[in-house]
């Protein structure tokens, strides 16, 4: 080793016992200082007395003049690079991959990389400017070599994130890492502005691009998961399907970072975030339509669609998810819910209402004359239809208490007046007067009570 290189190493290593984050990584203290984007970079410079900095600068000039530029670069970047690596370790970052990482590991990485980018790397930039004063090219190259190992170590984490599996559950960790990188890129560009260190800036930008691609791939995998979800068996009672709950709440959580999601989806001319999420929701709705066909009872099929459609509508009508989907999509979904609700009511109570109104004249609303035997037969048929409907739907599910209350109220409003009018018609028939008590199985109060008992168990069992 040349005497000048040995002297330079001696001067540098004498100062490397100091760290600007000294003690932050002690085993009994998990707290990590968070870097701030302010010029508080004197910590590293202060580790070198002015006289020492001047001595280092003098040795560097002599080495360059003596044709020992390569040895100078190696000695400086090795000593300062070791200092950076030790500083990062003492911050608590002791490993990178494998992925997936737990939430606390992601949070730790975010804090450590912010300290590195906002404090450690700018401090090294400032130190290089003083040590290599008058030797700008050598200083830029020394900075790049000094920080290369630390950058590689820190950026192995997002690289691992970007190349790991495409499980939808990884989305939120990916977006946390992406958002951290987005904040850091301008500062990295400021620190590594020289030609020799531009590769470090490119490394950070490439990591961000790969993370964005990984997020788009995760959304594609979410769509595949929806497609692959088996149609059968049907959900008991026509209630809320687990896939509906999973997809809607997943997208709501993803949209809390709506602006980040829009930025990622729009990169490289990709589909807008609203379109991407709209496709996922449309896939879900199509899957639900297929699942509804598993029910033998048409009313239960429509109730299943109503349950799931109502849940979706309530979850998207406000908040970031609704903003991304847009008003047109929400209006279309609301119209579908109304259609399913109407179809459920028609298939549940339509035959009952048609029976009760069978002899009513459409023009005046009065009853046309009808034989007592015909009225008695209609009453018996009503008893059978109403009883069968009640028995069938006693175990059916309505996932939302407000919806259940509205369905019960609508049924009462639809059935009870027609039934009361029919009973008045029966009582006006002298031929049925004696047998009326035996024929009438349900009083109006009984009809109301039974309808009010429908779906009562739903809220307690969901």
Automatic annotation (TrEMBL):
The keyword Nucleotide-binding does not apply. SUPFAM superfamilies: Cullin repeat-like. GO terms for molecular function: phosphatidylinositol-4,5-bisphosphate binding. Residues 108-452 form the Exocyst complex subunit Exo70 C-terminal domain. Keywords: Exocytosis, Protein transport, Transport. One of its GO terms (cellular component) is exocyst. InterPro entries: Cullin_repeat-like_dom_sf, Exo70, Exo70_C. It holds the Pfam family Exo70_C. One of its GO terms (biological process) is protein transport. Belongs to the EXO70 family. PANTHER family: EXOCYST COMPLEX COMPONENT EXO70B1 (PTHR12542:SF96), EXOCYST COMPLEX PROTEIN EXO70 (PTHR12542). Component of the exocyst complex. This is Exocyst subunit Exo70 family protein. It comes from Spirodela intermedia. The lineage of its organism: Eukaryota, Viridiplantae, Streptophyta, Embryophyta, Tracheophyta.
């Amino acid at each position: 080793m040349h005497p000048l290189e040995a002297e330079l190493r001696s001067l540098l290593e004498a100062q490397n016992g100091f760290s600007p984050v000294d003690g932050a990584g002690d085993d009994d203290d998990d707290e990590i200082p968070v870097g701030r984007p302010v010029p508080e970079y004197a910590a590293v410079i202060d580790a070198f007395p002015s006289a020492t900095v001047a001595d280092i600068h003098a040795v560097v000039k002599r080495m360059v003049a003596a044709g020992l530029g390569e040895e100078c670069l190696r000695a400086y970047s090795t000593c300062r690079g070791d200092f950076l690596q030790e500083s990062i370790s003492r911050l608590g970052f002791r490993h990178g991959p494998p992925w997936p990482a737990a939430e606390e590991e992601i949070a730790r990485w975010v804090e450590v990389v912010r300290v590195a980018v906002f404090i450690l790397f700018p401090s090294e930039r400032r130190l290089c400017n003083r040590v290599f004063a008058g030797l700008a090219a050598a200083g830029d190259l020394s900075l790049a070599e000094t920080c290369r190992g630390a950058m590689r170590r820190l950026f192995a984490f997002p690289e691992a994130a970007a190349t790991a599996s495409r499980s939808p559950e990884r989305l939120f960790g990916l977006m946390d890492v992406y958002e951290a990188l987005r904040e850091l890129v301008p500062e990295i560009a400021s620190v590594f502005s020289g030609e020799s260190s531009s590769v470090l800036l490119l490394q950070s930008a490439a990591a961000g691009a790969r993370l964005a691609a990984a997020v788009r791939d995760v959304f594609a995998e979410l769509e595949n998961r929806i497609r692959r979800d088996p149609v059968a068996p049907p959900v008991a009672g026509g209630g809320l399907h687990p896939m509906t709950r999973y997809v809607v709440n997943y997208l709501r959580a993803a949209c809390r970072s709506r602006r980040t999601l829009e930025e990622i989806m729009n990169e490289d001319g990709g589909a807008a975030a609203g379109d991407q999420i709209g496709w996922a929701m449309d896939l879900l709705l199509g899957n639900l339509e297929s699942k509804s066909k598993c029910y033998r009872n048409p009313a239960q099929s429509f109730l299943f669609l109503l349950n799931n459609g109502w849940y979706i509508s309530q979850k998207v009508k406000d908040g970031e998810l609704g903003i991304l989907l847009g008003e047109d999509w929400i209006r279309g979904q609301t119209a579908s819910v109304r259609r399913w609700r109407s179809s459920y009511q028609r298939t549940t109570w339509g035959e009952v209402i048609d029976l009760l109104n069978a002899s009513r004249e459409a023009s005046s609303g009065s009853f046309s004359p009808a034989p007592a035997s015909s009225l008695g037969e209609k009453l018996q048929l009503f008893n059978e239809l109403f009883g069968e409907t009640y028995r069938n739907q006693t175990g059916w599910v309505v996932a939302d208490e407000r919806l259940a209350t509205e369905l019960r109220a609508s049924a009462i409003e639809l059935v009870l007046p027609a039934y009361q009018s029919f009973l008045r018609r029966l009582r006006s028939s002298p031929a049925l007067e004696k047998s009326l008590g035996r024929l009438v199985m349900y009083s109006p109060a009984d009809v109301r009570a039974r309808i009010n008992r429908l779906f009562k168990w739903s809220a307690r069992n969901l």
